[in-house]
Amino acid sequence: MISDHQKHEGRMDGHDVPQNMPDLEKLGKERPSTFSSLWSEIAFCFSVVMSQILGEFFITGSNVITPTLVVELDIPEASTIWPATALSLAVTATLLIFGRLTDMYGGYAVYNIGLMALTISSILVGISQSWLMLVIFRAFQGLALAACLPSGMMLLGSVYRPGPRKNLVFSIYGGCAVLGFFSGFFFAGVCSEFTTWRWYFFIGAILSAITLFSSLFSIPRHNLEEPRKPVRMDWAGCCLSIPAISLVVFAIADSPHAPQGWKTPYILVLFIVGCLLLGLLVWVEGWMVKNPLLPGDIFHVHSMVPLIIALLYLMSEIMGASPLQIVAWSTPMAVGGFILSITGGLILHKVSGTILMIVSCLGYVGSGLLLATIPLGGNYWAFIFPAMICGTIGIDISFNLANVFITTKLHQSRQGLSGAIIYCTMHMGIAVMLGFADIVQTQTCHLGRQESYKAVFWFESGLAILGLILGLLFVRIDQAESELTEDEKMQFQSSGREHIATGLDV
Description:
Distance between the termini: 17 Å
Shape: globular
Number of strands: 2
Radius of gyration: 23 Å
CATH architecture: Up-down Bundle
CATH superfamily: MFS general substrate transporter like domains
Structural class: mainly alpha
Strand order of the largest sheet: 1-2
Helix content: over 70%
Oligomer: single chain
CATH topology: Growth Hormone, Chain: A
Order of helices and strands: HEEHHHHHHHHHHHHHHHH
């Protein structure tokens, strides 16, 4: 970030500012030159933000139809978590790999291949004749999303330079997550009530196909596929990360349903083997390879505690809500979340990121405490509605802030990795924390269903409070103002600080 005072004084981070330095504030507000018109920019943004909508659509809606799947596909009680968990597990285990592939081959190719795979796998899930077939193709959906999410982030990060326009576009992108969240609930609820669960996946396939068609023609290949710093696949990290993450997450998620819990031999063995592989992965990535999947210099921890499934069960089991009631109750989260995201995009360059992160943590805490203290038959407006609003504040602010901050701080050659980091933390939270939430619920079920579900939200509240403490002590993020990109800063330093303006036409 270059302040007016720094420009006046001729200084920038300890260096002389060149006389031909362009107006960064103006560049940060202008439409990128890669778009010939506003409509071409809108078509591009639609094609990319749809990946965000589809990701949430296939995660949240599947939880609504799970009770129907259990009956119609005769899913064993011990396997009821896998129609939802298989997707998150596949996404979590492969996001870093697809992030690297994006940096190697460009966002256009990886993104469209991912959309094609998502369309096909969604159709196959919809025609599944057994629960095992459904779980397998749900995992394939996860692989497709793992390709779409980081490449979509890379496309946005590559086109938009730091400034108000990028803040607004990324906030719209983040706001579309709550639209996807709500649309997943909506279509799953409607299909459960009036048609068949299969149409939920067929609708998802139709939306994926529309997005694929749009992206093939609206995403510009020029300026996105320019030669970048050579990037190679880390095969050692690839071969270790997938089994390590999969085994640990599987052991945690399946332990509450195993015959003897953590005493079940296969649970304990898989968990130990997974932890050993994780330790080996850390050693190999940290000291043995030159191009690790997750370079240490960009490691960024961002905590997100998911509560979607626990919230769903609280509504449907404790408060007696039907699928369509859940849709109605979730509406404030969708509408409020989108409005909050757009508003956030307009103030990110004016308000300290540290303050916004603290507000986000307070939203997480408030949501957890409201749901943990709700009485039997509690009033919707007194508990559920404010919990939805608080949850929206927590999710949308932290997600949008992380998107803008990480994509701005990483070089062009690591934009795919930036998306992988953001989504990996999110889906790791979904896969792992929901497993721990399930453990909490099963270990407290002797207290009664209501109290055991409340225990889950006390668990979530504790993690949110921990996140708040960490935010207060360690998070320091400035306003997301117009500034040089990381590549421009490097060019500025290496070119004798004379010709940087020639590289600013993004």
